[in-house]
Amino acid sequence: MKVLMIFDHPYGAGASENTPHRRSFSAALSAAARRGLEKAGHEVDLIDLHADGFDPVMHESDLAAWRQSSVIDERVADYQARLRAADHAVFVFPIWWESMPASTKGFLDRVMTKGIVYSESKPGRPFINGLKNLRGVTLITVMTTPDFIYRWLFGNPITKILFRGTFRKIGVKNLRWLNHTNPAGKTLEQRERILQGIEERFAAL
């Protein structure tokens, strides 16, 4: 199976080691998931949005092209090709202000192009999925907000945006969310157990 990982953190996917002021638990989770996938023999394609210098802004020229079902940014076109080739997609990022960081939102805005990634039969009708190979999406997040507050008080905004409002809307139904709260408040041993669990989970994907 070909798995596309979309990683979003300013430190980059390489910041997975426990180095003070240069460490990211999101990166550690991404590395653990990748180890599990590769252990199971899956092909992993990593998009590191910050390392790529991805511009999340939908500029005037981009929007004009988007309305014509085309893209003018070569990096966006490359991301689309890699997404269309994937059997499974994994998004990894921290939750900031109860949502995704700007680069992931820009990925949705710019890469999910109408007429390429999905299409509409008629206005108001269900979208037609252009990602024919994609069988599922897994979301891995890190946040400081307590899980029960995020789910019951805030109403799970991240799954409403990424799952209900994006992938489910275009017809991808196998959607999983793996959330990890307050890693800074956990011991090293607790964090290592979480990472081992992620590795084992993705080895069984």
TrEMBL record:
GO terms for molecular function: NAD(P)H dehydrogenase (quinone) activity. Pfam families: Flavodoxin_2. One of its GO terms (cellular component) is cytosol. InterPro entries: Flavodoxin_fold, Flavoprotein-like_sf, NAD(P)H_dehydrogenase_qn. The keyword Oxidoreductase applies. Keywords: Oxidoreductase. Residues 1-195 form the Flavodoxin-like fold domain. It comes from the Bacteria. PANTHER family: NAD P H OXIDOREDUCTASE-RELATED, NAD(P)H DEHYDROGENASE [QUINONE] 1 ISOFORM 1. Belongs to the NAD(P)H dehydrogenase (quinone) family. This is NAD(P)H dehydrogenase.
